[in-house]
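Summary for the steering committee. The consortium agreed at its last meeting that each partner would contribute one worked example illustrating the joint modelling workflow. Our contribution is presented below. We chose a case with several input lines so that the handling of multiple components could be demonstrated. No manual editing was applied between input and output; the record is shown as generated.
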Amino acid sequence: MSGLWHGKILMLMVVLTVSRHSLAFQARNANPSNQPGTNASTGNGTENTITTLPIVTWKWHHTEGPYLVALWVLVSWICKLEIETHQTRQHSSSLQLSNFVFQLNPALTNVFPESGLLICIGWVLGGIIYGADKVQTFRLQPFTFFYYLLPPIVLDAGYSMPNKQFMGNLGAILVHAVIGTVWNAASLGLGLWGCWLGGAMGHLNTGLLQLLLFGSLIAAVDPVAVIAVFEEVHVNEVLYIIVFGESLLNDGVTVVLFNVFDAFVSLGGPAINAVEIIKGIISFFVVAFGGSLVGIAFGILISLLTRLTKKTPTIEPGFIFVFGYLSYLTAEFLSLSAILSCTFCGVFCQKYVNTNMSEKSVNTVRTTMKVFANGSETVIFVFLGISAIDPSIWVWNTGFILLTLLFIFVFRFMGVFVLTWILNQYRLVPLGLIEQLVMGYGGLRGAVAYGLVFLLDENKYKEKNLMISTTLLVVYFTVMLQGITMKPLVNWLKVKRATTDEAMLAEKIMNRTFDHMLVAIEDISGQIGHNYLWDKWHNFEEKWLFRILMNPTARKSRDYIFNIFHQLNLKDAMSYVQEGERRGSLAFVRNDSKADVDFNKQFDTDFTDMPDIMGPDHIPVPFVLRDSVPSVSLNMHEQDQKMRESEDFNAHHLLQQHLYKGRKQRHTYSRKQPVVNRDEDEVQEIFQRTMRSRLESFKSAKMGVAQPKKITKHSKKDQTEKMSNGKPADDSKIHSYGDEDFEFSEGDSAGDAAGGSFPMAAYKGGAGIVNPAYMAEMDSNEPMPPMPQIPPWLAEAGEDSSNVAPSQRAQLRLPWTPTNLRRLAPLRLSTHSNDSFLLADSPATQEGTEPQPPLPLQDGRGRGTHM
Amino acid sequence: MGSRASTLLREEEIEEIKKETGFSHSQITRLYSRFTSLDKGENGTLSREDFQRIPELAINPLGDRIINAFFPEGEDQVNFRGFMRTLAHFRPIEDNEKNKDPTASEPLNSRTNKLLFAFRLYDLDRDDKISRDELLQVLRMMVGLNMFVSQVLRMMVGLNMFVSQVLRMMVGVNISDEQLGSIADRTIQEADQNGDNSISFNEFIKVLEKVDVEQKMSIRFLH
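What follows is the complete predicted structure of the assembly.
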């Protein structure tokens, strides 16, 4: 560890020495900007005077600009590396595995947030530079900041935004971002003005408008700082998304405010009348919405373009970055809000782009985006530190600085409390006092304020330096002090943390149960759910956006089953490789014995427990499984603890993938992976299962004990029919199949005891078990007639079946449509049941050639409903 | 319809329901009109069929279980009081209810009662334990359509399919019964403290200790 340390320190020193040289050059150049063009001319000048051909020449001036940039990035990253390796948690990239987790040195970084540490390192570096040059050569230039450093961060934030969560809380976010920011700006400006008039800060050459301008530039919560601090704290999702979303959007707001007030100052106090103010307000909205629209337009462009890039996977990822950057620049030159534009571009395009691009490109984009964003973030913080070591900018005015700090703190809390109180009147889950405290406390100011304050024109703003130093102090105060105390505060207040991937299976299952329950209760009580609009949007998306913005193959592979199949295989392969590496080789994969010992055993027990069902087929089973399954299904029970983990992971993963989602999915979101919507498939499945189970309980209620026999017959009959269409069937085997059919009892609806340790008790009808024979039959049939919302059993049971009382939601939108079914049918056929294989080829011919004779009522009920 | 409903509902009845469930007056009248619109038999009670007519419930994997939860044991009808009592479980907990005097009986929407409601969804035989089978049943309802290995085998035998081909697909794509079984086992293991291989209500509460039940089992009833 210490060796590592020394190595890095050494490296740092070397880099610094190099940049020292460069500093000297740059100082002599008297051209502090990093523009390579201007330096190149001096280089050319020296080159012209040569008398003989030089073998090597010293062309420092040619390379100085880019070289310095590269060196600074390198320095910042080394600092970051230094911090990160001590970090207990590696969160910068989702792709990195837990290697870093174990190199911990919690003493320092557990207390300090990373951003604070970077600022400290910036101070040290700034001190060294200043000590060497006696003048601060480097500082964060607003141009560099706004055009090079900020866009990657904003784009990344938008692109990896948890959409669902963001949209779900959009109201709260907007209220806080717009009204909250305006309130912060106005209150601070007015407060300072009042104190200035009262003489609390001595003699200052300023005025109301200038103070309002100062208020507006420092009003915005900074996304960079907030992400840096909140990601380490792991507060719950809702809190996180509100603070984060607010910080992202209010940057746009604050830039707009800044521009408006800047214009006001230029106009001068007397020239401002009601018209100008109204214009200001209009411009505010135009800039904000215009920026968002530009972003969305670019999002659409990206999506459309990535439809076509199938053949050129190497430039695919590039498009995302170029378009993201272009959206920023376009909005900028239209004088619209660039930050909002870039954010919305990312938010909008992520879903379509991710499905359009190949997996490789998606990963590339994700990683690269993180690299850029992290890089900018690091550079920004380091430079925030470096910039401070410059006596020329420091002007101290106790009254002004302390009052600013106080006002920022107090007004932020007031704003949060009042706005949240209003919002809570409309929220299902009100934000508690504790959450409000954290929201208020999370009002970290950062680099945007700093960048803006440097943009001020010294001629107009006599107190520019005071504003700069105040801004810097505010940034340090919030990032360092509040950042450091955030974690203890969150602990102390017992803020609800992010449920880190529902640690227990039981929790996961129950959470899903809750979702279903809520939806059902909402339906029963007949009201439009909370996420009604979200549902609507989904429909629209499903219908139009996917069609337009996604390429056809991607649309298909987006499908639930393919997706799961793919994901499962990937994960399995990964865990195989991991396991193999842990053991030193992959040989075990080939060596069957270890991998599926337990697998076989489990199946054996399963099958021995049901001899009556399995009959003579018992023996070949393990064989078959051993041959074909291990490559796909990972179920190795290893005593090895690590294997245990991976099994755990598997179980969680399986559940994650397979549990039906509640219509709202309110509580599931992943920051890293967009949630895939698979509602329609599920809806069909669940519907059929429910119908089947109801049918069973209905039948058994009517016909009593003889029920199982009937069903047996029914399924057997189907089976034979299928046979005749498809392959000729072995008669004897069909019979053996028919006889051993399971028993349906009304375990579910009648509240019967489940009872019994018999494994196949599962086949009680009520539990929604699927008989493959039914399944195939239903799926292979033509889509339902256009009035499927009349539950089929009603057609027989109820007299007034047409008089269904659907809830509001149903009246507005029926949960399924025949077209969906038609589109889905072939897919399900090919994956779910094997008789569908036979049918999948020629479903049309089957329908056509075999007019089904009207069946006796009992047998035909299941079928008739779906024809 | 709303006016008709409110005329049918007597004032004192509303008061009683209000006291029992904590719903507001307007919520009660609104839900009463919903109740009457569901009540096709127009006899003041709902039967299972009445619930089953709600189309969305058919696409809810737990729909039937939830319908059952409305019916007291052994009964086929539920009146408006019972209907409201069940819905009351899902009322959000309000601040002023938290510090109500402790002598009063626990409100229907307390954390414990919410959990009990969820517990009953699983506990079919009402022995105050969730057995492995009961859990498995619910799991089966909630996971994607699956093909159990034994069924696959049987079908293969019937159809002369290529065994390995089918199996690779089935088991690979879908969660298998055996996997579900092991999931159920693990879940019980996690929760089971006294080693009886089932989850008692206390164990149930314990497992869900960290889950924000108050929030996850609440909906906003319209006024």
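Chain A touches chain B through 134 residues (CB under 8 Å). Residues 428 and 778 of chain A are 40 Å apart (CA to CA).
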